[in-house]
Specification:
Elements lengths: L7 H6 L37 E7 L10 H11 L4 E5 L1 E4 L16 H13 L3 E4 L2 E4 L13 H22 L3 E6 L8 H12 L6 E6 L15 E4 L12 H22 L3 E6 L22 H15 L5 E6 L23 H9 L4
Parallel strand pairs: 1-2, 1-10, 2-4, 3-5, 4-6, 6-7, 7-8, 8-9, 9-10
Organism: Streptomyces mashuensis
InterPro entries: GH (IPR017853), GH113 (IPR055151)
Keywords: Signal
Length: 356
Amino acid sequence: MKAMKRAAAALTAVAALFVAGCSSSGDEEGPGPTPSGDRSGRPDDGKASGMRGMTLPSWNTEDYRSPQAGTYLRQIAATGARWVTFTPTWYQDRITDSAMRVTEETASDDSLRAIVRQAHDLGLKTMVKPHVDIRKGGDRAEIRPKDPDAWFAAYERFITHYAQLSAEAGVEQFSVGTELAGTSEDGERWGKVIAAVRARYKGPLTYAANYDEYKKIPFWKDLDVIGIDAYWPLADKATTDAAALREAWQPVVKELAAFSERQHRKVLFTEAGYVSQRGSTTAPYSWTVSKRDGDAEQAAAYEALLAVFEGKSWWAGVCWWMWDDWPGSGETAKRLAYTPHGKPAEKVLRKWWGKG
């Protein structure tokens, strides 16, 4: 998501601003690296297709090594998912700061390694998608450092740390960034960051752009797949009409197909999701659309997305945001949160992914 859970209220205020686990038409899956693997380094050599999966974020140091971790992974696999995405997060206090740092909310390296091993033991492939978030108000898309040189130097240290860890752990796909719209038009500096990542990690690379950011990215040519966090509003008011939602997707489908063709890369939905609240299709990026249950609307939105994009040759899949929260960390009640677990939306997933 474009902000951490503790910033849920801020999401509503910034709404106008506005792979991974994923699903596509076939059963083929892109090749992933081994700790000693190698490839030519050309972006087109890394493919990311046929992915079906779920994001399992962390909010505390040991979430990924907690007793609940294995349970969540087994539940995710039981939906028919083949991939799971992990989101270690560093923080900066303000959007103008020149560096990010580890806090008590950052997953420890050992916990990240442990959950990657658990996922592999269950037959799941993995993606690591590191996040940067803001501690004192603001959204990561608004980061505009006062000293860009210092910020990019710090960011390169941050992202290559996880690139190296991912290479050593055998992670199958890696994201070089997530929703950093305030910096992502700087192609020269991002090109340097991507080159540093490629020097350490030999598998497929993406970047998770906001749905209103992806057209402005100048460095897709340096990556293997176009990543988009697909939180397009689909309705003006609450609806459970899957047919109407499918129709609302049509202009986006046309736009993305043309963009994929121009960039010579597939499009991966690095995130997509809907809270189970009435009106979730009007603002999919918000944790706090309403206080009214919206299970049927969430399920209709899942159905519409999969029905519209499944089978598109240029579509690399969808990484759903998100599975259950860790005990004690949820700020949004499960019945209203993004998780599809135990809701009609999980039945939709199982139907499309062959576990229904």
